Amino acid sequence: MKKSTQLLEHISALMDGELADADRELALAALTGDEGRAAWHAYHLIGDQLRAAADREEGAGAALAARLRLRRAVAAEVGSAPPFEDDGATPAATIP
Q1: Which CDD domains did the record assign (predicted)?
Q2: Domain spans in the chain, listed from the N-terminal domain onward
Q3: Which residues of the chain have pLDDT under 70?
């Protein structure tokens, strides 16, 4: 494995809290160079995007759950389930 690839893997593991103590000093030293700082920044951006995607998925699930609760409440009020109204939205279309 190339040394720079190994250092990038160490930086990634450091960010994830999975780096062995023996490799920590090497990873921290790599952060003083341009390539190490760029990798640290890129890995943070990737993590931010992954967390944002998870938040969007969670939000879509909450919206669906709210619609189902409302439908159940209406059904209980009128004594039967109201017909399903297709608003044309698909799961993929509801996630921005």
Answers
A1: RseA_N
A2: 3-80
A3: 1, 75-96
